[in-house]
Predict the structure.
Amino acid sequence: MVMRIFVTGPAGVGKTTLVERVAREVDRWGYIVGGVITREVRRGGRRVGFKITALDTGEEGTLASVRGTSHLPGVPFGKYVVHVDEIDRVAVPAIRRAIVEADLIVIDEIGPMEYKSDEFIRAVGEALKSKKPLLGVVHRKFIDRFRPLGEVHTLSFENRNAEFGIILDRVMKELKGIRG
């Protein structure tokens, strides 16, 4: 069975940081990492949105912004507007390129904002059907959907460093097994 690791946990616990650290280590060992990372955008100490970055090209897009702070069209979501066009422009092609070109697919994050995009949902499905190892951050509201598909690692402030080592070890063993 192909490796599927899903990281979840409360906001601010370090899920994206962990996945980025794993991706950097995997890259350092000469493997190709593709997919997408989501980061908070802060101004004056306040979160004003989220940006998405393609791991292979560095291309960025605005996933979501606080209502009234962006000229981009979008779908209302709580205090945010989700910019589906940006998800489709940056995240979807990055995931699809990773399915073809990468040794490890990274998808950060799979959650309710991203699921406003039908193309994103399709791309995640394609990644899950592929034969490539996948490391994903899954929003806690969605984790039960993904639990049957792979290993779930729930991060806390207490275990996040240990989990980094466990996940990195698991990913490296999988990648070395693929390359022989």
